[in-house]
Design brief:
Elements lengths: L12 H4 L8 H14 L9 H18 L1 H20 L12 H12 L4 H15 L3 H6 L12
Helix pairs in contact: 2-3, 2-4, 2-5, 3-6, 4-5, 4-6
Length: about 150
């Protein structure tokens, strides 16, 4: 996380993608707000299409990972949603904050005793996010070694 760019246009995530078996509509909205702040950089925020792709991939992952994984992710997300804003003096949800405020709240959460909840959600989001070819390319991943020789 870096200095956040100007606020991107807000998407109503619930209208963009319907809930699947792994992630509720509220979970999608909270995850979208988290991921948008997590993957923002000085160059800007991630493309909305990539974040929507991440929501679908996370939904698929959680649907197949089982109820314990869904519960663990849900508890991490619940803690992040409500605790992070309090750490910057804002009694609201993470999704209701502006992008710069979300970035600041997550940075403070990462340094707090509640960091484990953040790291739990951050880990799975990073694994899935960087599976996207454009995100991997932007991070400098050279996947040529993964191709089979001809």
């Amino acid at each position: 996380m870096h200095d956040a760019p100007v606020n991107p246009p807000r998407l109503d995530v619930a209208d963009q993608i319907s809930p699947g078996p792994g992630l509720s509509a509220g979970g999608r909205t909270a995850t979208y707000a988290l991921a948008e702040a997590l993957f923002s950089s000085r160059e800007g925020h991630p493309p909305p299409e990539r974040l929507l792709w991440l929501m679908d991939d996370l939904d698929h992952f959680l649907a197949h990972a089982g109820s314990r994984a869904r519960l663990a992710y849900g508890l991490c997300l619940l803690a992040i949603t409500w605790l992070a804003p309090l750490l910057i003096g804002r009694p609201c949800t993470l999704a209701s904050l502006s992008l710069p405020q979300r970035v600041e709240a997550l940075e403070r959460l990462e340094q707090s005793p509640f960091a484990l909840a953040f790291f739990g959600a951050k880990t799975i989001l990073c694994i899935l996010y960087y599976e996207h070819p454009e995100a991997a390319r932007a991070a400098g991943v050279d996947a040529s070694c993964l191709r089979s020789p001809r």
